[in-house]
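Q: My labmate handed me this sequence with no annotations at all. I'd like to see what the chain might look like in three dimensions before we decide whether it's worth expressing. Could you predict it?
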Amino acid sequence: MAGEFTDLRSRLEAIAEELADLAIVRLRESIDAGGTELPVDERRLNRARRAVLKAAALLDDQSGSDDVD
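A: Here is what I predict for the chain of 69 residues:
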């Protein structure tokens, strides 16, 4: 069973990177527009990124746990 989820985990990690990049774009756009608060989209994107990273960690070969919260 080792390595069975490696590809899926890698894809989830890539998606997390895309979400982080998009959050940075939102922050830059807000700064360029003179904003003084975090954009709502940036917060949502970071929450989604953390959820995706959590899912990737659950598929980690090293974890050895089948417990799901």
